[in-house]
Structure formats: C-alpha cells, structure tokens
UniProtKB/TrEMBL annotation:
Record has Transmembrane helix as a keyword: yes
Keywords: Membrane, Transmembrane, Transmembrane helix
Range of residues in the leader sequence: none
The UniProt record lists the keyword Transmembrane: yes
Name the record gives this protein: O-antigen ligase domain-containing protein
Residue stretches spanning the membrane: 40-60, 72-90, 110-128, 140-161, 216-236, 243-258, 264-280, 292-312, 378-396, 408-426
Length: 479
C-alpha cells in the first residue's frame, strides 16, 4: 500500500458522465448489492452477515492491485489493533457495572463490532482505489439515491404497517446458537417500526424499516440526503424526474417528523447550515437562495400542518436527557478504569432509569438494566476501546477531513457533509453497521475526487447542477 500524499490543486469540471463499460476484471456488484440491494438483504434477515461476506470480493480486488490509502488511514489501523486487543478484557468486570454474561453472546457482539470496523476500511479503500472507468461516480450515487428512496419508503411503511413482524430466511438457515441470542433474533426479524412511549404513556410506532431501530433509520436517512440531492434533484436529466425526486423529499418529511427523533431534526439543520456555508463560499448564490427559500416554505407548510404539533409535543417531553447524561458519565468512568483498550464490549448498569429492579415486567416494561456505551458512538468507543481507541477514531476523521477540505466539487461537499454528520452524531447515536459503511462510501468518493488531478484515471464526474447550465470549475481554495 502507498499513502496518498497528493491533493489536486484544482477541482475537475463537474459535467455529465459519459457512458463507460466497467472492466470485466473488476467486480463492483458487491458494493451495488450492499447499497441498492440492501432491501433484499433486509427482507432475507441476512443483512448483518452480508456486509462481511460482500467485503471479501472487495478485499480480493484490493489485494490484486497496488492499493493506495487515504490520509489518516494509519489511525484506523491503530483503532483496529486496539479493538482486536480489547478481546482480552471481555472477561473483566468494570467498577459500578453488573458482571458480564459469561456466555457466547459477548464474543458474538465483539466479533460483529470488529467486523464492522474491518468492513468499513475495505469499503473506503475499494471506492477510493477503483478508477472512474472501473466504478463510475454516477453509478455509486445512483445506488445511494436508490437506498435513500427505499429508506423513505420504509419510514412510511413504519407508520402504515407498524405491528407487522415477519420471520425471515435467516431464521431458517442460521444455527440455533446464533438465533438463541436476542440481538441476533431481532436482526433476523423484519419489523417496520419501533414502539416507544415518548409523548405520554401510550406506546406509539416510530419508523425504522429497513433497519431494526429508529435511530439507525434517521442516521442513514441524513447521510444519504446529500447524495440524493446531488444525484436525483440536481442531476435529474428531465423535469419529470426532478419533480419526482422533490416529491420523495416532501414525503420524507412525514416519517422524519413522526420518528420523534430530535437528533435527526438537529442533524438536518446542521446539514442545511453546512451546505449553505459551502455554497456561499464558492459563490453559488442562486442554489444557496434556493435552499433558503425551500427551507422557509417547508417551515410555513409545517407550521400550518399537524406535523408542527407532533414536533412541539416531542420537544415538551425530553425525558431521555437525564438517562443519556447518566450513561455518558458512566462510560467516561468505565474508560478511566481501563484507558488503553477498554473492556471489549458494552456493559450493563446496576438498576435502570425507572427502577432499581432488575429485569422488565408487564407493570414496568422500561425497568431493567441500561447499556453503558449504547447511547452514542463516542461512549461506545470509550467503553469498548478506552481512550486510545477513541482518540484513533477521532484522529482518523479529523486528519481525513483536514487533508481533503479544499475539494469544492459537489462530490467533495457531499462527502464532507457525511463526515460532518458523523462528528455531530458522535455523542448521540452509534455508527456501526450501515451508517458507518455509507459514510465510508461517501468519503471514498470525496477522496477520489480530491486526488483526481494527480491521476486522470480517477477523475470524478458527477451530475451537473442543471442540464442547461453546467457547473464551472471550482477553486481549490474553497473550504
């Protein structure tokens, strides 16, 4: 491998991508199946094992070539080393937590966590090392747009079909030892919504499909949004397609509101603010004004609709704040007791947010242990890998973002938006699984775009902002 040290002094012109055949020697279908084909994997109940399996042919392709690595990748290698070493701590008991389960489950969770970090590295290198001819940027963006549309459809289904749960193929083919684990059984059951009593005491559905959890649904939706805007709205070849894409965004507002996901709401504001800053700095005042106008119109429509009442009710019921604060403090204390490699897995509190009783019951479904390290990627890293692993994770994203910050292309802006969201979500939601993989796909496209001038074969072409007015070359000084 060679460390990438070149950065384009100028950004390539963004124009329509000519039709090119992908080399028969390069197998790009694993990435396509992982993104555009995710609904199939979800319905089969095998999504959680599909990513490591699909990463094998991608890793083989990397092995066959002279593989470059992006700036900061050494920090990811350190993270992988710390995660691997943390297996030695799986049997240790952290202060002020319950003793760990001595069964198979803790090793299964550790293995899945390590696999997530490995697969993320493979996906980043796969996207970044393949040339534009081998893996056209437009094709990857199309896969991401398809994923966004499916996520919106899943959110709507979560509101229309909330009680539906369907056994899957995974429950038929996976060994009983795996299915005896509650976490695996949840992953292999198709459900469209999670049920929570957030506003009042009555359980209400929150959209989750095609994922097991509402928070993951919101995380993925926000990461995919910039790519959908680039590919389906700005890159639409006909007026009809652009109108259809805008209609998808309008429909998406309904499950976004009914998800009662304050983290997602704030993330969308951060995303809009970041995009506006980038557009203004590059002198694209018309698109910036369009975003402001669209935001104002959405606010007016929202305030005049029942959605406003739903959001206000949610903001009036911030009951999870204290629980999150307590778990965050507990995660920091756990890291202090094992600062180098953490404890290899999440830990259970003594008691819960509602009762000191251990275990849920019909009278108190929320009673029982809370998971230390389950309320955000930052806290999970502290618990599972200590301060060293946490620092390596943060250093990787910081170094990567700083190195390629000058890429002003639409691909660069969208990739940087993904990284910004990853940082924003750190203390709120965990990133392992599809959120991390999608972010790595976006960052891989960004890396390839930022280094395109040094290697013309990697030149990135993305959808133009308007069929009638191609985007001009952008200055490398745009931050």
């Amino acid at each position: 491998m060679t460390v990438d040290s070149s950065l384009a002094s100028t950004t390539p012109v963004i124009s329509g991508l000519p039709s090119r055949r992908v080399s028969s020697r390069v197998r790009v279908w694993p990435l396509g199946l992982l993104l555009a084909g995710y609904p199939i994997l979800w319905l089969s109940g095998l999504a959680f094992v599909a990513a490591p399996l699909l990463a094998i042919p991608m890793a083989w392709e990397l092995y066959r070539r002279r593989c470059r690595v992006p700036a900061g990748f050494g920090w990811w290698i350190i993270l992988l080393a710390v995660v691997a070493l943390s297996v030695l701590m799986l049997g240790e008991h952290a202060p002020h937590t319950l003793p760990k389960d001595s069964g198979f489950g803790r090793y299964l969770a550790f293995g899945m966590r390590l696999a997530d970090y490995l697969v993320a590295a493979v996906v980043l290198l796969f996207v970044g090392n393949l040339t534009e001819r081998e893996l056209p940027t437009r094709r990857v963006i199309r896969w991401l747009c398809t994923f966004f549309t499916v996520t919106v459809a899943g959110g709507v289904a979560g509101l229309v079909l909330p009680p539906v749960q369907v056994p899957t193929l995974g429950q038929l083919v996976l060994p009983g030892a795996l299915l005896s684990n509650d976490f695996v059984r949840q992953l292999t059951t198709v459900s469209f919504a999670q049920w929570h009593s957030i506003v009042g005491e009555q359980l209400e559905p929150r959209p989750a499909a095609p994922f097991p959890w509402t928070n993951t649904w919101g995380y993925v939706l926000s990461l995919l949004l910039p790519w959908f805007v680039i590919g389906a709205v700005l890159g639409a070849r006909t007026v009809g397609r652009r109108v259809a894409a805008i209609a998808v965004l309008v429909v998406a507002a309904v499950p976004v509101v009914y998800s009662l996901n304050r983290g997602l709401w704030l993330a969308l504001l951060v995303l809009a603010g970041y995009t506006l800053i980038r557009l203004v700095r590059r002198g694209s005042l018309v698109p910036a004004a369009t975003i402001l106008a669209a935001g104002a119109l959405a606010a007016v429509i929202g305030l005049a609709s029942p959605l406003a009442g739903v959001m206000l009710d949610r903001l009036d019921n911030p009951h999870s704040n204290d629980g999150r604060s307590n778990l965050s403090s507990a995660a920091f204390q756990v890291a202090l007791s094992s600062p180098l490699v953490g404890y290899g897995g999440q830990l259970s509190t003594i008691g819960s947010g509602r009762s000191i009783a251990i275990g849920a019951s019909p009278e108190c479904p929320m009673c029982g242990n809370r998971e230390v390290g389950a309320e955000g990627q930052l806290w999970q890293l502290l618990v599972t890998t200590g301060f060293v692993g946490t620092a390596a994770y943060l250093a990787f994203f910081g170094r990567f973002g700083w190195r390629y910050r000058r890429d002003g292309s639409l691909v660069g802006v969208a990739g940087a938006a993904n990284l910004t969201l990853m940082i924003f979500y750190l203390p709120i939601y965990t990133a392992l699984g599809m959120p991390l993989l999608i972010a790595m796909v976006g960052m891989g496209l960004w890396w390839r775009s930022a280094t395109a001038e040094a290697d013309p074969e990697r030149a990135v072409a993305a959808p133009a902002a308007s069929p009638a007015a191609p985007v001009r070359p952008m200055s490398a000084g745009v931050g």
